[in-house]
Hints:
Distance between the termini: 35 Å
Number of domains: 1
Radius of gyration: 20 Å
Number of helices: 11
Largest sheet: none
Number of strands: 0
Shape: elongated
Strand content: under 5%
Helix content: over 70%
Order of helices and strands: HHHHHHHHHHH
Amino acid sequence: MSNTTTNALREKQSLRLTIRNTLTMAYRALLRIRRTPEKLVDVFLLPVVFTLLFTYMFGGAISGDVQDYLPHVIPGMLVQAVLVMSVMTGVQMREDMDTGVFDRFKSLPIARIAPLAGALITDTLRYAIASGLTLTISYFMGYRPEGGIGYVLLAALLVIGCAWAISWIFALIGVIARSASSVQGMSMIVFPLTFMSNAFVPTETMSDTLQWFVSINPITYLVTAIRDLMNAGTIGWDFTITVVAAVVIVLVFAPLTVRAYMKRV
């Protein structure tokens, strides 16, 4: 057997082992959630509370009627609920490193990247739960997306994909930060970015300066793409920009995160 064939088999076996270890770490994270269900409190509570609060408190003031406000606010709430969940990737990463969990992983015969990759896979479940809860609550509130179920599912997949891409940023912060609290503190930027977008208030009602910021805010493009999908069943330029931006984020921050992570473990 040639050296080329031998190396190819080793790489194939190594990749297979890495995938198996990653799935094992993802399963570990799921078991951890089952044993400590309070870790899902934010996943179940925030989408419900925020959706009800924003809709019934501001719907009449902004749109004149709660039902008229739903097509505007629900896409924005979907984006906020899921993006907030992406913060927990970095927080959980830092907590595991601080408590010595990753030190124990180093002593095991597993792929070094598996704990990081497994955590990122498990987090997609959190995003899916938050998306499903937001859409379910909005349905009982009377929201009927005109785009249809297919485009609603596509909108959910888009926001989950974008949250997964952004989670690489917070994973990097989690690896290099000094504590979990510092990760959570730096992640608070998600809230002002969401509020200073078109997620909750029409852009034309804002001041000129704020309109300029909203126009360059990446959250605005994501929210607009979600609205186009759910309310009109169309895929516009904002959808394309959002997908490209998500891909770029992964291409830039995934290698940086992996490199920083491998230095720590």
